[in-house]
């Protein structure tokens, strides 16, 4: 059985690294057009998808900011007229425990990991 997403449009948040990148690449390999959303590195994943014959676009919306998410959705709709799939893998980590984190870093982690989804 082959899983096929031909012509479907997927948004993958946190799509530049780790599981997000893996999801973006897998969806594209199965025919989906992919919005690779990440604050950093989305262009490389788009280039990797395109090199394999897939279709993708980069987007840098901060998922903890509703206005930026709305704009990302509007860009995807303008490009491909639909959105079928959302994979939310955005996660923020500052590589240290909460007790050692600045209030600013703590806010960034909470905004991305709790408010984003």
Assign the structural class, choosing from mainly alpha, mainly beta, alpha/beta, alpha+beta, or little secondary structure.
Answer: alpha/beta
Overall CATH class: Alpha Beta
Q: What is the CATH homology-level superfamily?
A: NAD(P)-binding Rossmann-like Domain
Describe the main β-sheet briefly. Answer: 4 strands, parallel
What does this structure look like?
It contains four helices and four strands, in the order E-H-E-H-E-H-E-H. It has helices spanning 18-29, 42-51, 66-80, 103-115; strands at residues 9-13, 33-37, 55-59, 85-88. Strands 3-2-1-4 form a four-stranded parallel beta sheet, with helices on both faces. This is 3-oxoacyl-ACP reductase. Belongs to the short-chain dehydrogenases/reductases (SDR) family.
What are the main properties of this structure?
117 residues; alpha/beta; Rossmann fold; four-stranded parallel β-sheet; 4 helices; 4 strands
Give the SSE layout.
Layout (H helix, E strand, L loop, with lengths): L8 E5 L4 H12 L3 E5 L4 H10 L3 E5 L6 H15 L4 E4 L14 H13 L2
Summarize the structure.
With 117 residues, this protein is α/β, with parallel strands linked by helices.
